[in-house]
């Protein structure tokens, strides 16, 4: 089959690789219908996260079960399913508590020795614990299929951020980061009842999506001016909760600046400098909490899925560029240069 | 009157200063019955927190109302009262929500221009918002008076840490720091229903208090060995919550090492290097939350007071050295050299 492989920073190729096969009784082989490129893939693309030459890449996908091991109980050949961005056994104490990202047998797609999502097929370990079934009819609804793909990462990650930010009915929330996760954070905050959602961003195409997703205010300023703008919108106090969906020193500084005393920062941006932006003295004096991390998306899919199926949530607008497998390297380039927000792949 | 003054690192003096007087209608002048020295005072004593020469010091005290301004409604001359370690107006939006440490008119005893607690008397701003009345009979019960003094800071701060660590019935909690706050954190965790309380410490006199306060296990090891010991006590997973009551790089590293994935660190140690110990990558991968900060003790006093009055909570053992006002400089030296755990002062 053909799959995306990373050889070095800025060297993404689509190559012939061995077909995946059942290795364990609990495995499934999945034919990928849709995959996509994540903002976090760009850290590898830019060389800021180490990868071994030849490693697979991509961790967001949905597709059809092509083969199921004898130990798989919940899925049959032909089922349409979505995969979260880590696999998990569904049975350990962490999985039982919903923290599937800490599964004792879990792992990350594209890690050494495992398939990545940006290819024609994927071997899925612990299929019963990992996958979630989708209605078969969705396979022929392109818009819905696109929306459902967001369940593999960005929608659940936005939800995790909103929970970390402590969003509840009536909250004022600010969102740092205008990428797909930040935008899904806007959507998740609205779903949890936030009354005021302040999206920070200066690119009209993105802030328009934020408004469509439920943002009530857009702050285009940066630095001190952004702080002043948020203060003006919040009686001088700041937002009850902030979603930090970038992971840089500057984004974390901004998050701390604009959160209200006693508030919470839901951080889901993979840390790339953000530790340096953590002003612990300020956090201490102002009782600011930091909650979040890698989102246990598998746990959130059953809760979010009905809202996606009935159209209450439609994250599909975050995908603004569609490519075939051959065009994946160009997709990385487009996201890296911010000419695309998020790239969807039809292998 | 006489009060404690800090002139330079390691230069603490007890001097004649102007008698406090009512300046605002909402002031009270309080005659101090008991005060004490805080672990956080040692940061100033050691020169690690800046102080202007001649600044007052001390922020924990209880006493008797000697004079009340015309705008004071809740207190009369002769009332026995305890003060939390910051004053607060009791009426702003933060006070209304219980975050009295963020009061828009609040302040810290011993800050420039205000009285410190380690003296004969204190001018208390916003007395109605700040002070809490105690039963008059307590004034003649030396043990009870000592226990009640802990409400001014360490008991409420331990409670704040336990809340930040997410303690609930059945929790396993680990406590980093064997000072008065850490020990009160043990007591607070037990009160909130923790089933297992692991106190880290190697000084028998302190770990004995931890055991008396409710610790179920003592870990005397440090570094890697401490981590291994906590893992062994927790099925290899770590504690659901950790109380970080020190504030150094090493203590924060230890807290992150020994907390279970998905757990929470309740941090109340004033940061002195602890930001450097925050391994955000590890926290992100393991979904570790950081919650806490300066404790809104005023809010907690009404909840904790009945338990202290009826003897359910008796934090008095944390005070292991009693001095008069003249001996305060020696009290600092004793705490700095760790020959005393916490010094109580009878002016």
TrEMBL record, chains A, B:
InterPro entries: ADH-like_C, ADH-like_N, GroES-like_sf, NAD(P)-bd_dom_sf. It comes from the Bacteria. Its cofactor is Zn(2+). It holds the Pfam family ADH_N. Transmembrane segments: none annotated. Keywords: Metal-binding, Zinc. Residues 180-304 form the Alcohol dehydrogenase-like C-terminal domain. Residues 25-135 form the Alcohol dehydrogenase-like N-terminal domain. This is Threonine dehydrogenase-like Zn-dependent dehydrogenase. It comes from Streptomyces clavifer. The lineage of its organism: Bacteria, Bacillati, Actinomycetota, Actinomycetes, Kitasatosporales.
């Amino acid at each position: 089959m053909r799959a995306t492989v990373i050889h070095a920073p800025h060297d993404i190729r689509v190559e012939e690789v061995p077909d995946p096969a059942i290795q364990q009784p609990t495995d499934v082989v999945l034919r990928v219908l849709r995959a996509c490129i994540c903002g976090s893939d760009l850290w590898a693309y830019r060389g800021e996260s180490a990868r071994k030459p030849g490693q697979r890449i991509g961790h967001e996908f949905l597709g059809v079960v092509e083969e199921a091991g004898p130990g798989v109980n919940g899925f049959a050949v032909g089922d349409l399913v979505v995969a979260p961005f880590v696999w998990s056994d569904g049975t350990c104490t962490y999985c039982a508590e919903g923290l599937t990202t800490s599964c004792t047998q879990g792992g990350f797609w594209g890690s050494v020795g495992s398939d990545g999502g940006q290819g024609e097929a994927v071997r899925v370990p612990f299929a019963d614990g990992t996958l979630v079934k989708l209605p078969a009819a969705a396979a022929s609804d392109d818009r819905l299929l696109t929306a459902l793909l967001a369940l593999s990462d960005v929608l659940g990650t936005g939800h995790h951020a909103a929970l970390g930010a402590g969003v509840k009915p009536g909250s004022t929330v600010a969102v740092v980061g205008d990428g797909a996760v930040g935008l899904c954070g806007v959507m998740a905050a609205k779903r949890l009842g936030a009354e005021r959602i302040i999206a920070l961003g200066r690119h009209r195409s993105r802030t328009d999506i934020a408004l469509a997703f439920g943002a009530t205010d857009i702050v285009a300023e940066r630095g001190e001016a952004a702080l002043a703008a948020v203060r003006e919108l919040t009686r001088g106090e700041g937002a009850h909760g902030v979603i930090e969906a970038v992971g840089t020193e500057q984004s974390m500084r901004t998050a701390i600046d604009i959160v209200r005393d006693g508030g919470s920062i839901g951080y889901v941006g993979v840390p790339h400098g953000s530790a340096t932006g953590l002003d612990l003295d300020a956090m201490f004096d102002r009782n600011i909490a930091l909650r979040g991390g890698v989102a246990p998306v598998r746990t959130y899919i059953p809760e979010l899925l009905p809202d996606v199926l009935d159209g209450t949530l439609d994250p599909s607008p975050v995908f603004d560029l569609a490519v075939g497998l051959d065009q994946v390297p160009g997709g990385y380039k487009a996201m890296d240069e911010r000419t695309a927000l998020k790239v969807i792949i039809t292998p």
